[in-house]
UniProtKB/TrEMBL annotation:
Keywords: Endoplasmic reticulum, Fatty acid biosynthesis, Fatty acid metabolism, Isomerase, Lipid biosynthesis, Lipid metabolism, Lipoprotein, Membrane, Myristate, Oxidoreductase, Transmembrane, Transmembrane helix. It is found in: Endoplasmic reticulum membrane. Residues 5-43 form the Sphingolipid delta4-desaturase N-terminal domain. Belongs to the fatty acid desaturase type 1 family. DEGS subfamily. It catalyses: 11-cis-retinol = 13-cis-retinol; all-trans-retinol = 11-cis-retinol; all-trans-retinol = 9-cis-retinol; all-trans-retinol = 13-cis-retinol. It comes from Panthera pardus. This is Sphingolipid delta(4)-desaturase DES1.
């Protein structure tokens, strides 16, 4: 259903990612940005409140009809759980306790992971650091779709299905692109998460467990916030690899929409990224950006020139120091 996308391969480039050079240039001109590279203690309390909010929600949905369980999973729980994945993104950059307490951040990430229902935090940290160091790196950056995704999801209907199934592709893609040995922290993350899920089942019942898992699956699929998955790096304009979003949903997503700013300064917590843009406005205001993630989702599905192949890729030069 729908026209077939003409693109049959990724956009292969032979230049370095733009973020390192722009970071150096901006810091040379605005060294005060270094003062923004510090932990955000408010992140700790926000995450604790979000976990408690979902615990209350587990209690409130435990006796509802199934249709209302699923309704609230999409209308409310999906927003909390997707937001929590982006809180974990912040924690992966040590924004909660700082670089000097890296292990504290890992344990806190495992805590933040609880209402998501699926062990995710520790593995995300390992792969996300590769994404920053080797943006678009062939066989390294698992944010890049597989060749199968680009080849198969090439029509309007299939791209729509791909958007719905995004959480599954993000979960299994690393196993095909860049499998890594399981770490002891990943084992701990998994054991704690499964134990929590069992407790939710025995304390609140099956409806609360389904609510939790459905909130994650629905919230990371066809959902307004999920527009950021595509908005961040899919090439809607030739030659532009990273795009920022300046809109209201940044309030729910720890400013992940400020994505050029984030890749330029990954040590700056999300709370301070608008200040980066304000200080170095001449570097960011002229870059292509979005004001609606919903429109990004619509354009991705309907535009015959865009598909999972619309990503810039690079062959790795030399030996990669993987996370």
């Amino acid at each position: 259903m729908g026209n077939r996308v003409a693109r049959e391969d990724f956009e292969w480039v032979y230049t370095d990612q733009p973020h390192a050079s722009r970071r150096q240039e901006i810091l040379a001109k605005y060294p005060e940005i270094k003062s923004l590279m510090k932990p955000d203690p408010n992140l700790i309390w926000i995450i604790v409140l979000m976990v408690l909010t979902q615990l209350v929600a587990f209690y409130l949905v435990k006796d509802l009809d199934w249709k209302w369980v699923l309704f609230w999973a999409y209308a409310f729980g999906s927003c909390i759980n997707h937001s929590m994945t982006l809180a974990i993104h912040e924690v992966s950059h040590n924004s909660a306790f700082g670089n000097n307490r890296a292990l504290w951040n890992r344990w806190f990430g495992i805590f933040a992971n609880l209402p998501i229902g699926v062990p995710y935090s520790v593995s995300f940290k390992r792969y996300h650091m590769d994404h920053h160091r080797y943006l678009g790196g062939d066989g390294i950056d698992v944010d890049i779709p597989t060749d199968f995704e680009g080849w198969f999801f090439c029509t309007t209907f299939r791209k729509f299905v791909w958007v719905i199934l995004q959480p599954l592709f993000y979960a299994f893609r690393p196993l095909f692109i860049n499998p890594k040995p399981i770490s002891y922290l990943e084992v701990i993350n998994t054991v704690i998460q499964i134990t929590f899920d069992i407790i939710v089942y025995y304390v609140f019942g099956i409806r609360s467990l389904v609510y939790m898992l459905a909130a994650s699956l629905l919230g990371l699929g066809l959902h307004p916030i999920s527009g950021h998955f595509i908005a961040e790096h899919y090439m809607f304009l030739k030659g532009h690899e990273t795009y920022s979003y300046y809109g209201p949903l940044n309030l729910l997503t720890f400013n992940v929409g400020y994505h050029n700013e984030h890749h330029d300064f990954p040590n700056v917590p999300g709370k301070n990224l608008p200040l980066v843009r304000k200080i170095a406005a001449e570097y960011y205001d002229s870059l292509p950006h979005y004001t609606s993630w919903v429109k990004v989702l619509y354009d991705f599905v309907m535009d015959d020139t865009v598909s999972p192949y619309s990503r810039m890729k690079r062959h790795q030069k030399g030996q990669a120091a993987l996370e």
